[in-house]
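Technical note accompanying the year-one report. For the benefit of new consortium partners, we illustrate the data format agreed upon in the data management plan: each record pairs a sequence with a structure-token string. No post-processing was applied to the example shown here.
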Amino acid sequence: MLTAETTPICPACHGALAGTAPRCEACCITYMSLDGLPILMAGADPAAVDLRTTGGALPTYDCAHMGIPAIDAALARGDRILELGAGLDVHDSPTVVKTDAFVYDGAQLDLVADAHALPFADASFDFVFSLAVFEHLHSPWIAAGEIARVLRPGGAAYTLCAFLQPLHGYPDHYFNATESGLARLFAGPFAVESAGPSPHCPHRESLVPLDRMREMAVAVRDDRSAGLRTRMRAWRLDRSLARAAHELFQIADDAIQRPAGHAAWRRIAPAVEVYAVRR
């Protein structure tokens, strides 16, 4: 929810906005809206932002019920919180400002914004977080700088980003990150307190590459122009991968609790996360 402390500003020049169709008093840009929801991105086309019928299904979630300690602690403190890429987060705390670059069916956003040019004044927030957003940003280093700008000194940021995940999402999938790469994005204005594989990304994401391999095998299995021996090999591969995916899903939690299993999982984890404090 927007408050006096988090009143939006012009993302282009950081001037003040006025009017129901927000207009910047400094650079004279007038921003569009979508059914009353401000689109604070210069030159944005509401039709391109509106994915309520074309964006596919997103999972509904409540950021307070995900078991992520950094988010839980910020909510408990009553921090002024900014969520980037809120999607279908149904959390309704008045301390959380929810933004996304697109509007999906069922979204409960405060405004539409681009993480590369946030429409908020310097030091507006105590905590900023994003979940599975940074891989979809064309210039995530700019977004990290914007997070630093809108955080007060001593404020914190938590980011979860894809590591070993196949292409996915809209409008594109630009960058996966290693734990060291994600930490590097937040170096400089931040003190990085932790970076590593994230336990908050479902294990099923680790199985997606196996599913894609199965699709490759099925393509050969079902191609009658292929030789019989090749098709049989593809059939066996499909069955083996299906069994492997099933068994891995069953033991994954146990495996990552063991040092050797955790070391192996760290190299193939579907996501990495970073927690950093603004200097």
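Partners are asked to follow this layout when depositing records. The chain has seven helices and 13 strands.
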